[in-house]
Specification:
hydrolase, DNA binding, Arc Repressor Mutant, subunit A, binds zinc ion, single chain, 26 helices, 832 residues, alpha/beta, binds adenosine-5'-triphosphate, globular
């Protein structure tokens, strides 16, 4: 029997802690509760052994073992260890991110009698008596009462058991430890999808007296055919406008005029299907898709680790290829995992999934409650859901019998977690596939340079889909030089004449247009004319954005006029005078999407305009409504931030405009060109996906920049060739490995002293094989009240970089620099 267990705890320390086994020996991969500096913490057992620690600390016992079997199989534990090592993150924090059950509500447990428990019950006291002798006679009797109560085999909640037998939870857990009872989470009883409340009009012959609000609700319901989702009802324009309180619906329910039904969540997509648009899986694959699928099918049949990079231009029909591959895996008895970007789990994607795979689907997205997440987690683990679709952290889903991983839009930056552990979901997925020895597919119209380099080196098999489906052309892209536009018109307008012409033409033809304005808010700089100062956030070294008050029923951002910091969320009233010099001459510069919408309304008074940004679209429900209004044609002119660029497949869109996407080219970030190229290509890719061809108008101040030139020609290969060269010259990824280290503290002197200390250490140590840039003030020197200095480390070899990071942490520890003061971002996407 092992005497000690090493437990990984969710604390910012890079090692597990040793505890004494106390009665039951937990298995590796199980959760336990242990004392830690005065608290009770939940951790995961990572090792069992008999080696007494020699560092002189008192070894405390494990307080409780929560699982009788491992929650994480050995592959996921291995994956966790890989992440901890590769990203230099505490294992306990990695595990916390992997296990939604770290938040599992323990009162939701059920107890069930085991075969062993039955034996004890039937074979009487004589066998058990010596073991139970430590218990009081009352407790011994209670144990029998509990076994009796559960004898039917139905699991019961602790509360039910208590009222029947007066037994508390401690006794139940003791019995579970003796394996007389089995403890299980309650989560498995609910439906695969979330339930959603539907308000139903009750037919009634009475003529009840109703107040105005009640009448409004009944009228709204009647207009919708007598049934409506409660959340849609609450958000309906009429009810919002008339400020009908939420309690009115409850009153109607009480009076039996409305009934509330529960139904599994569904996804509405407006008139999409009425127009005959098919789901991806309903198309017979064309020749290119068949070839792409065949390559993956061979890998599936053969088995074994094989990454594929599926480079397919926008609208080439990648989704149908994913589906076919997942179907093949399913037929071979294997489950699949499909990762999509944060915003990619749209109702359209979900609806296609359910249409193709029905109840086999589990969705894991960021808006699940901890309970819902735990519930899905159990379904997936039991093998009830064999098609798992989710955003970043779904890479950890405990998929039973996983046979294929697919990553859609693999270049998307939402796959990188921007807090500890700072893992990249794509790279973690590749590692998981490697550990499991299964194929993986990374798909994109604009593959990241990292993945492209891997394909060039032959590590990933490259599959190309160079054409759009049904011989549809890629849209023609026209560049508008905004400097020239200014010279010719003499005024500084948001929208160029050409963009206005093209948009008007699309609207006249009954088609749709989209315009990208990649900043939200009204004006993103407020500057004082007298002193030249920009109004900055109190917490961050960032200009504040001006937001106009929002009127109308559509947006729930009913927030008033304000300045807002887009990094920390801080808001303040709009000052009449400059906070620095008291001058009244405040200027509002830089048009955001809100201003864009206002201007478009003036230019196209007849257009049905919608805006898509984080102010108008906050939840999946918002996204669903917005997309359904686009699909149905209710909106024919959409303005928005990069949200509009991501994966949407709206067949009526023929004109796309791009306004001010190139200010990013001026940022101190070696990935700026790649990002602008991706954004331009993706947003252009929204045009011409239906029968009519698309046109794109790109307004730019850098018409000669290669990122813009290549994007305008749809020349990904040209772009990567050039960009790869630049990265090589400058020793940037993917030719080197890079890590950003930030020293951070609320005290400026502390942060700078720590940075200087670490800087000296790098110099004194000498760093063969490593380039160290810094210390320097981080581009955003103060963020959320924290001062930041940084280093950028570049190395030829990952091993060199990794070991120096651990050596640096040891040095910092010896110097008394706290771990929380050091942020390590391996393979950082942003150096800000
Ligand atoms: N074989 C086919 N024939 C006709 N239409 C198809 C075929 N396969 C897919 N489609 C349709 O083509 C459209 C584009 O497909 P899809 O959304 O998968 O493109 P994509 O490659 O993912 O593009 P993007 O990278 O822009 O998201 C969809 O409307 C889809 O239903
Ligand atoms: Zn701020």
């Amino acid at each position: 029997m092992s005497l000690f267990a090493d437990v990984a705890l969710p604390v910012p320390l890079d090692k597990p802690f040793t505890y004494a086994v106390n009665g039951v020996v937990p298995v590796v991969g199980a959760r336990v509760i242990v004392p830690f500096s005065g608290q009770r913490l939940m951790g995961v057992v990572v090792r069992l052994h008999n080696i007494a620690p020699t560092d002189g600390f008192e070894i405390k016992p494990i307080q409780q073992v929560l699982d009788s079997e491992a929650l994480l199989d050995r592959y996921l534990l291995k994956l966790a260890e890989w992440i901890a090592q590769y990203y230099v993150a505490p294992l306990g924090e990695v595990l916390r991110g992997m296990l939604p059950l770290m938040a599992e509500v323990k009162r939701d447990l059920l107890y069930r009698i085991t075969d062993h428990g039955r034996k004890v019950l039937y074979e009487g006291a004589e066998k058990g008596s010596s073991r139970r002798s430590k218990l009081s006679p009352e407790d011994q009797n209670r144990e029998y009462a509990i076994l009796n109560y559960l004898d039917s085999g139905e699991p019961a909640k602790p509360s039910a058991i208590r009222s029947a037998t007066q037994a508390g939870k401690a006794l139940l857990d003791a019995m579970a430890r003796k394996k007389w009872l089995l403890r299980e989470a309650v989560a498995d009883t609910r439906d695969a999808r979330r339930l959603e409340k539907i308000a139903v009009l009750v037919e009634d012959t009475r003529m009840p007296k109703l107040n105005e609000n009640q009448q409004l609700i009944l009228a709204e319901l009647a207009a919708a055919g007598g049934r409506m989702r409660v959340r849609d009802l609450r958000n309906s324009g009429t009810l919002l406008e008339n400020k009908v309180p939420e309690s009115t619906l409850a009153t109607l329910v009480k009076r039996n005029l409305v009934r509330i039904d529960e139904e599994p969540e569904t996804f509405y997509l407006g008139g999409v299907h009425a127009e005959g648009k098919k789901h991806a899986h309903e198309h017979a694959l064309n020749e290119t898709q068949t070839e792409a699928y065949a390559a993956i099918a061979i890998a599936l049949d053969k088995g074994g680790f094989q990454p594929h990079l599926l480079y397919g231009v926008t609208g080439s029909g990648k989704t149908a290829v994913y589906f076919a591959a997942m179907k093949r895996a399913l037929e071979a008895g294997k489950s699949s995992l499909l990762l999509v970007p944060e915003i990619g789990l749209t109702p359209a994607m979900a609806a296609q999934m359910f249409a193709a795979f029905g109840d086999d689907v589990a969705l894991l997205h960021s808006q699940l409650t901890p309970d819902e997440r735990a519930e899905q987690w159990h379904r997936i683990r039991r093998g009830d859901a064999r098609i798992v679709v989710g955003t970043r952290s779904a890479v950890f889903a405990p998929v039973a019998n996983l046979g294929l991983i697919v990553i859609d839009e693999e270049h998307d930056s939402s796959y990188k977690q921007e807090e500890t552990p700072r893992y990249h979901g794509r790279d973690t997925a590749v590692m998981r596939a490697k550990l499991l020895d299964i194929p993986i597919v990374l798909g994109s119209a604009t593959p990241s340079l990292e993945s492209w380099a891997n394909a060039q080196k032959g590590r990933y098999a490259l599959i190309t889909m160079a054409e759009r489906v049904s011989n549809r052309p890629l849209p023609a892209v026209e560049l508008i030089d905004m400097r020239e536009e200014f010279r010719n018109t003499g005024t500084d307008q948001i929208f160029s004449r050409q963009l206005i012409l093209e948009t008007q033409a699309a609207l006249d033809r009954g088609e749709q247009a989209m315009i990208l304005l990649n900043r939200r808010g009204y004006s993103y700089v407020v500057m004082c004319r007298a002193c030249g100062d920009k109004i900055q956030c109190e917490n961050c070294a960032i200009s504040m954005t001006f937001h106009k008050p929002v009127l109308g029923a559509d947006a729930h951002a009913h927030a008033g006029e304000r300045l807002e910091c887009h990094y920390c969320g801080f808001r303040r009233n709009v000052p009449k005078r400059c906070p620095k010099c008291e001058s009244e001459h405040l200027y509002y510069l830089g048009a955001g999407s809100q201003q864009g919408e206002e201007r478009l309304q003036e230019i196209f008074p007849g257009a049905r305009i919608g805006r898509m940004d984080r102010d108008t679209v906050r939840t999946r429900v918002d996204m669903e409504r917005m997309l359904s209004r686009l699909h149905s044609g209710e909106i024919n002119l959409l303005v928005g931030t990069q949200m509009i660029a991501k994966g949407h497949d709206i067949h009526g869109v023929t004109v796309v405009g791009v306004v001010g996407c190139d200010h990013a080219l001026g940022l101190p970030d070696f990935r700026a060109a790649e990002r602008v190229f991706q954004l331009l290509t993706q947003v252009s890719g929204r045009a011409g996906r239906g029968d009519a061809p698309g046109r794109v108008v790109v307004q730019t101040y850098h018409p000669d920049h290669y990122a813009i030139r290549f994007a305008a020609r749809h020349d990904y290969l040209g772009f990567v060739a050039k960009e790869m060269q630049y990265r090589r010259w400058m020793h940037y990824p993917p030719n080197t490995v890079l890590t950003n280290i930030v020293l951070q503290s609320q005290k400026l002197e502390e942060a700078s002293a720590w940075a200087a200390n670490i800087g000296k250490w790098f110099v004194s140590r000498g760093t063969p094989g490593l380039r160290v840039l810094g210390p320097a003030a981080a581009p955003i020197v103060r963020l959320k009240r924290i001062y930041r200095f940084h280093f950028v480390l570049k190395a030829e070899k990952r091993q060199t970089l990794n070991s120096i990071l651990y050596a640096m942490l040891a040095h910092a520890d010896a110097q008394g620099i706290p771990r929380r003061g050091i942020l390590i971002d391996v393979d950082a996407l942003h150096l800000m």
